[in-house]
Write a structure and sequence with these properties.
This protein is an alpha+beta fold. It folds into 5 domains: 173 residues, no CATH class; 139 residues, no CATH class; 102 residues, Roll (Chitinase A, domain 3), CATH 3.10.50; 83 residues, no CATH class; 108 residues, Chitinase A, domain 3 (Roll), CATH 3.10.50.40. It is 43% helix and 22% strand. The strands form 8 sheets. Strands 4, 15, 16, 19 and 20 form a 5-stranded antiparallel β-sheet that branches. Helix 2 packs across helix 6, helix 8 crosses helix 23 and helix 9 packs across helix 20.
């Protein structure tokens, strides 16, 4: 989710004051400045064409994007975004592109303003430009630099960058041109049909063992195609052995015993919520009726055979032992359709997930009283909903079309499924007050309230210590590659090779997320073995660095998977041409190769698929070469085999639907796509210094 969206989603009541306090400070500045920051100093984590990326700025943006485990995933994404932004800003500056103060005001207060949500009247749904401007005028003396920096970062700079990018794209788009001769040539090519006769010998007819590929041949091919295979970043690889620290049988038995001890109390309690407040569960209690069809529990048939108050278990569900209690049972519809009006008291913070108060209960209750009064007086429900509701579907009459049980908060769920069609009323949930009307219901079946007491199977200290000690002993006696492999064999452990690891990676293929291990790999040398096991998820890992591949052309063993088949086919082609293609006519060539002369009477230039051969650019090029008409070509090494052909005729399709204008638009579209790919070319030509690994 973008930074802008995250801030927007906090809601108008939260963001309004911040925006009001900060935007005017920016707008009052002299002109429009780009590239500035509310943070100065700090360490440099990278440079792009000499321009620094400061850690303080980077950290600020990370905090705006997300927290916790998500942070490590975001570091790479944000880095790429920052590099691209700097590169594009530099391009804008080279071209003299800028955004004037007038343009900025039009962006911020115009039809597509990024502030629309924050300054939209919740009752009318209209973006109140004057209210926004008035708010700015009232706080001209604000000196809250932190808030100013946040708003500039989240709103002003993205708006300016978008405007500059639009100008940049517009300049390039306007430079696109398709000359008449190109259109005519493309039209002629698209309409071309070729009739050819040919002899074809596939590479598969020659055994791989007769065309072995050496490391030198791999490297020679790579050197000739250096741009395709050269790398600009170092990679490393490891081999590792893991020692499981997963829960043991004794750990499982301990959790099961704990649940068994709570079973009697769980069965007899009259207050489920209080019970769970004392005894934590991994499965929060949903105090609403749920159709049996919607309950995705492994043992649901056994659970629902119990009487109300009955308890099933303990049983294993994932990494938990579970007790399930049937709290209530009744017949309910399978699905329901309702409409409602929400007067919010709380909204959910998209970052933390917590509920933030936006209106006092007493104020919300008064608004709801007005809602009820207007509906009872006969006013149109849709208009009342549009005027007062805080829900996202307010402009659709507040309707929730047919939905199944457990899709809504419990009170809303039970009103929708427990009340008969036509019922109307006000309920209160954690989000506020809802005026609900049940419009329709479908189907019928048993519904249940089921409470699940779920306890995770926790790894004991003894189990964890045993795994750690075993890994440490292995590491301590494995001081070189030979010992590493011998010790693994003694323990019947498999030594697993990793994929290539980059310096700023956070995840290692096959192991999972471990920045600690990646950093260790890049702080040590080839052949080193970590003497302290590293915990990764439920394993202690001991690893050996097996390779260090510097920037440039990788060694042959790394290149082989991508190149070997290409070089092998080249060697096979040479064998086929030298040993099998004898003669000057197709008939003679067919005899010498032990094949037959084949024909393709309607080969299309626009879709040159050859039965038995496939798509082969060299074959197509020869097939539509008018100068080869009536002649037999020399043997040609194609994509999947060697061929020689004779062009019998080249003609044009009848009734072609291609028009000059459609061809022109197709070419232009191709050029536009090339423009969008151009940003990658700019990145490749940039001088990028990446120092992230020193800090993360």
């Amino acid at each position: 989710m973008s930074v802008i969206q995250r801030i927007r989603d906090k809601g108008a009541w939260i963001v309004f004051a911040i925006i009001a306090l900060a935007l005017i400070a920016f707008i009052l500045q002299d002109g429009v400045r780009r590239g500035g920051s509310g943070f100065s100093g700090g360490s440099v984590i990278g440079k792009v064409n000499g321009e620094s990326i400061e850690r303080a700025d980077f950290e600020q943006k990370l905090s705006m994007y997300g927290k916790g485990q998500q942070r490590e995933q975001l570091i790479g994404q944000l880095w790429n975004q920052e590099v691209s932004t700097i590169i594009m800003k530099q391009e804008f500056d080279k071209l003299g592109l800028s955004v004037s103060q007038k343009e900025l005001n039009e962006i911020m207060f115009g039809e597509n303003s990024p502030l629309k949500r924050e300054f939209t009247d919740p009752q009318t749904g209209v973006f109140d430009v004057e209210r926004a401007k008035e708010a700015f005028a009232q706080i001209k003396k604000s000196k809250n630099t932190e808030q100013q920096a946040g708003i500039i970062e989240a709103y002003i700079e993205p708006a300016i960058l978008q405007a500059l990018n639009n100008k940049y794209q517009s300049l390039i788009q306007q430079s696109l041109y398709v000359p008449k001769w190109m259109i005519e040539k493309q039209q002629a090519d698209n309409n071309s049909i070729s009739s050819v006769s040919f002899v074809y010998v596939p590479y598969s007819s020659v055994s791989d063992s007769s065309a072995k590929v050496s490391d030198d041949e791999i490297l020679n091919y790579a050197k000739k195609h250096r741009k395709e295979y050269e790398r600009d970043e170092e990679t490393r690889s490891i081999a590792y052995v893991s020692f499981s620290a997963s829960a043991s049988a004794a750990d499982s038995a301990a959790t099961k015993s704990q649940l068994a001890g709570l079973k009697s109390e769980f069965a007899s309690t009259n207050d489920i919520s209080s019970f769970f407040s004392k005894n934590a569960t991994e499965s929060p209690y949903y105090d609403g009726f749920v159709s049996k069809k919607e309950i995705k529990q492994k043992y649901i048939d056994s659970i629902t055979k119990l009487p109300v108050g009955g308890v099933y278990g303990p049983y294993v569900d994932g990494n938990n032992f579970v007790l399930a209690r049937v709290v209530a049972e009744k017949q309910i519809p399978d699905s329901a359709k309702v409409r409602h009006i929400l007067v919010s008291t709380h909204q959910q913070d998209p970052n933390s997930g917590t509920l933030v108060r936006v209106r006092e209960d007493s104020v919300a209750r008064k608004i709801m009283d007005t809602v009820e009064a207007e509906i009872k007086s006969g006013k149109n429900f849709d208009s009342v909903c549009a005027k007062y509701s805080d829900d996202g579907n307010k402009n659709k009459g507040g309707v929730y079309d047919y939905f199944a049980t457990a899709r809504m908060v419990p009170a809303f769920n039970d009103f929708s499924f427990d009340k008969p069609v036509g019922s109307k009323g006000v309920i209160q949930t954690e989000f506020g007050f809802h005026y609900v009307e049940v419009l329709a219901q479908k189907g019928s079946g048993p519904g249940y309230k089921i409470a699940y007491l779920a306890k995770p199977i926790i790894v004991s200290n003894e189990t964890d210590a045993a795994a750690n000690n075993a890994a440490a002993q292995f590491a301590g006696t494995s001081r070189n590659k030979k010992q590493f492999e011998e010790n693994a064999a003694k323990l019947n452990k498999t030594v697993i090779p990793s994929g290539e690891i980059k310096e700023n990676d956070f995840t290692i293929s096959g192991l999972g997320e471990s920045r600690q291990l990646v950093r260790w790999v890049y702080e040590h040398s080839a052949g080193d073995i970590n003497d302290q096991p590293i915990r990764i998820e439920d394993n202690y890992v001991v690893s050996s660095i097996t390779s260090v591949i510097k920037p440039g052309l990788p060694p042959a063993q790394i290149l082989r998977p991508a190149i070997e088949s290409i070089v092998r086919n080249q060697k096979k082609a040479k064998q086929i041409i030298e040993n099998k293609f004898k003669g000057n006519t197709l008939e003679a060539l067919a005899t010498s190769t032990g094949t037959a002369v084949q024909k393709s009477d309607s080969l299309l230039f626009s879709n040159p698929f050859i039965p038995g051969v496939g798509n082969d650019a060299k074959f197509s090029g020869a097939a539509f070469n008018a100068s080869e008409k009536g002649k037999v070509t020399e043997p040609v090494a194609g994509t999947s085999g060697v061929f020689a052909l004779r062009v019998e005729n080249i003609s044009a399709k009848a009734n072609s639907t291609d028009t000059p204008e459609s061809i022109k638009q197709t070419i232009l579209q191709s050029q536009r796509m090339a423009i969008y790919r151009g940003s990658e070319a700019l990145r490749k030509s940039a001088v990028i210094k990446d120092y992230r690994s020193k800090f993360y």
